[in-house]
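Cont'd.
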Amino acid sequence: MAGGQERILRRRIRSVQSTKKITRAMELIAASQIVRAQARIAAARPYQQGMARLVVEAAAGDPVAAGRLLGTPERVERAAVLSIVADRGLCGGYNAFVLRATERLLADGRAEGVEHRLFTVGKKAQGYFRFRHQPVERSFTGMSERPSFTDAREVAAAVLGPFVAGEVDQVLLVSTRFLSAGSQRVEVRQLLPLEDPRRPDGDERPAGETEAPARLGYTEFEPDAAVLLETLAPRAAETAIFGALLEASASELTARQRAMAAATDNADELVKKYSRIMNRARQDAITTEIMEIVGGAEALRAGAAGDEGGLVIEVGS
Amino acid sequence: MAEDNEFAVSVVTPERILLEGTASEVVLRTAEGDSTYLAGHSDLVGAVEPGVLRVAGSGVEGGELRIALHGGFVQVESSPPVADEADVGEAAVLSRGRVTVLAGVAELAAEVDVERARAAFERAEARTSELESERRTGGGEGEEPAAGELAEARAALRRAQVRLDAAGSAEHA
């Protein structure tokens, strides 16, 4: 019956409208948190830069010791991989992109005979890898939206431990870089050994840094540069992990805001579409009803006329 | 304005810049003991042990500032490159050097929650002595995890001690 269809559509519209309210709220919440997340990235920068300066100094102080901890390892047999995603979904392809990149990295490793040990941050990674029977050495949850430095420390201790103990040759990081509010990119980076600051591109030092090397070689170290590097390298990598967590959280929020904005727009469209169909159905129902009434009245009249006619015919015959 | 014997000092943590200003004296604890840095110190990179960091200078309220420092690194630059936006006064300060302390965790003495630190101190103390006596009497099986726990308890004890030291001295001052 036509009235039933109308009721179903009305219910549908109401449900889409309440979903829209939720997606709209999530969009606004994400938007407000992005600002804070960006501020935290900016606040962490002085520390990161300070760490980078220390690494430059210490590396110059003892190039031999630096050889083990800096640059790209010649042979990688075993590597630790840290993959950073979100605890929650509803953020478009954010989680999927990182997880797929991680999966690809692991597959490449299997092909090349590199043994990978996987560590993850984010609840979404847990489910994904469990479903694919990919063993995860340790997974961390509950920090993706608002990572603190204490969180980063905990993750770093687990992920960097094997490298410090000499069990792996390399520590890789798969995460989303927050380049700007409009642009984020999934990247695979090497955490340890540290990127060699002495050779950012070839042997040339980038312009503007000419001042720093002038003092190199005259710096005192307490303790020795070699010993210092041993303690400094994990700290620098820990700082990088913290930075990555912050960037990931900002990227997650941006992705969520975008996804929720799209969902809200889509809800608007659905409401419009369903309203049209509903109105047409209602109009149809009204038309049908009128037709029925008119038809009924007509039939009644025709019936009455027919009776008379019958009588007339009877009379006539 | 900064005095003649003052240099730039900053204490930076991953979450914020704790202190940025000038000082005539910075005291902190390194592996070899307490070190004092004055203006014109030579270039140095060092590891900092947990302890109280003291910053003294005319720019500091009350003459001395205390910071509870839970390990980190220090970099002393005798004449760092002058930042672009630095005015002449700042450039003069920078010419006498810069001390940058990088610490994973650090708090200003005034921000330390004394009661919490005291409670943590007592808890850590009890745990440490408990583990130590366990180690003496027990031994054998499960020794390694106990050693890790003991190290952790000792670190917690040290942290609480540093906090109390920083806060306690601030109260006396």
